[in-house]
Design goal:
The structure is a homodimer.
Chain A: H1 7-14, H2 16-28, H3 33-38, H4 44-56, E1 60-65, E2 68-73, H5 75-113
The structure holds a DNA duplex.
DNA sequence: CGCCAAGCGCAACCAGTGGTTGCGCGACAG
DNA sequence: CTGTCGCGCAACCACTGGTTGCGCTTGGCG
């Protein structure tokens, strides 16, 4: 029951290019496909596709301005994504901790027997 | 300078099936390709491929036991992965916070002018 | 010992996706 | 009015997640 409906959000930010895209949009506040592609090692069209994906999951939104299309991040949705990231991280961390303490308990038991 | 060399780790845990795989291995402590595939909606071979990927980035390791091959999570490496998850989350969170406070500052300035 | 089933690896194949190039079209500036 | 800038669409390529099918070793058992 660990992974559930957040799979689309995950796969959205799972792609490294899309993560960089979000980073750029956060850093500059806004950007179009062409301006963003200038800072990335991919073409404008690739960026466009990624922006479509990000738009579909609601991580960014676009506002047409004349002949260009400005994108900006949706803060609320990104916050949700961050929360899910942290939740998975926290869960694994908890398991690791539990395993570790269990191992130590066994170790102690062994020593006691000895 | 946000995303860097950790891309392989990210893409390793970016896949939902692989995340479930790690979950299962954490929950049961160990497992072979066949036993794991029993709990997943994919075939044994698919699981094998994922295990190869996870092994390549060091998130799991295998110990041959007779005719079967047992896999277990490498705790140290998973801890590293979790750390990277948290770090990206924290960075985005920080940016969001900064943007928010900036917006509020502008709002205050506007009101002052008024 | 001999045989069958369990577990694994390898290869071929298919669908989806990240990426490219090339084209055409609307909109803004000279 | 004309050029160019930014965008969208379509075709194509490579890689990857997934499947099926086959053949090999290895362990249990009559």
């Amino acid at each position: 029951m660990t992974t559930s409906v957040d799979d689309d959000l995950w796969s959205a930010i799972g792609d490294p290019t899309r993560r960089r895209l979000v980073d750029l949009l956060l850093a500059e506040g806004q950007g179009t496909a062409t301006t963003l592609s200038a800072h990335l090692p991919v073409t404008r069209q690739a960026v466009t596709k990624h922006l479509v994906v990000l738009d579909r999951v609601g991580l960014v939104r676009s506002t047409p301005a004349g002949r260009e299309k400005r994108y900006h991040v949706d803060q609320a949705q990104l916050a949700r994504a961050v929360a899910q990231l942290n939740s998975v991280g926290a869960m694994w961390d908890a398991r690791l901790r539990r395993i570790k303490s269990l191992a130590e308990a066994i170790e102690r038991a062994k020593n006691a027997k000895k």
